[in-house]
Amino acid sequence: MPRRQRPDPTEPLFDASVAADAPLAARMRPRTLEEFVGQPHLVGDDGALTRVVKPGHLPSMVLWGPPGSGKTTLARLLADRAGGSWRQLSAVTSGVADVRALVAEAKALREAGGRTVAFIDELHRFNKSQQDALLPHVEDGTISLIGATTENPYYEINSPLLSRMRVYRLEPLDADALGAIVDRALADADRGLAGGARLTDEGRATLLDLAGGDARQALNVLQSATITAGDREIGAEEVAEAAQQRLLAYDRVGDQHYEAASAFIKSMRGNDPDAALYWLASMVAAGEDPTFIARRIVIAASEDVGNADPRALGLAVAAMQATEMIGLPEAQYALAQAAAYVASAPKSNRAGAAYFAALAEIQEKGRLPVPLHLRPSSHRRLAREQGYGKGYLYPHDYADADVDQEYLPDNLVGRVFYEPSEEGLELKIGERLQRLRRLRLEARRGGKA
User: Angle at Cα 285 formed by Cα 279 and Cα 287, nearest 5°?
Assistant: First the structure.
């Protein structure tokens, strides 16, 4: 099999002669940083990348952001500004052999006084050995590596490689940035649609809304709407028809998955059923596993509601069982019911906090012996026969089903882990425990229980 030929190192970074029939997004790709729209925190006058990328200097970096936010374009523009020779690999189709070939070319170019900017799209898809193959060459400066990823690099990229790179986060484009990109495409006579498309105000607003912060999606839908509309103005109906349906930015194993789940959990914890139902709907609409959502509700019912309203856990478990039995779409009702209830219920994390306080005690001091009177009956009988220890007192034989009896190990007598809150039912639980603790104290002082 003949070896694949790579581009000449002296080729221009940007080809001005993009085919006329190329997708609109490709034709309208910015050719200078001045044309680049969006990400002002990175490439604005005082942006992070504006400050560090200079002619002859380009640090290795990871550009992390959602699709259509400009990662590839920005990488090219930064390479052009720094004066490096551009080399591009896709982590989906490339392997260690491709990395070695790229490094060999970079070494040759470096000996000739040049520098190589290696761009790897979807860097997170490289496995550990592929990422390790890059490490020494990033470290010694043979290549300036720019990786693009839609996934959280702190989870997906090996720590040794990531420690030698800077991470820059790109955000979804806001309506103003998307609008500027769309307006430029409509006005550009050389690369865009000038003279061939008319977009109404309603059509423009619909387009920006449906694009969801994705410039590529916005331009693709605009191009499709232009073709189907013909000589007619492009209104909201034509845009919606071209888009077919909203493209939801969501990856069931990526950042969108964790971000939406986090927002959902925090909304339930924060007593906001409206937000909780919104994030629930966003996950269901994007194809999230409904059992994953149900489990999050169960966790919140116990972790955040707790004994302030014990009914929440029962309802959440029932919703999870219903989801497993009937599935979507009908399970949406059970999920919505449980999420709304958990979000609206009084909150207490005291039971969980008490458990982890007890766990910390065990981790610090080890597991202490069980008091003799709490051990199985054979142990208690032996203790009585040998004349030490006292027998177990059955609480139901006493008033309030309670008797002054120690249940903690001897070294922890008097230690309180669980302190109920004043929320919901837990207020009454706290009042009962305070009363029982007071009665036990009085009994120990010789008073009447």
Answer: 110
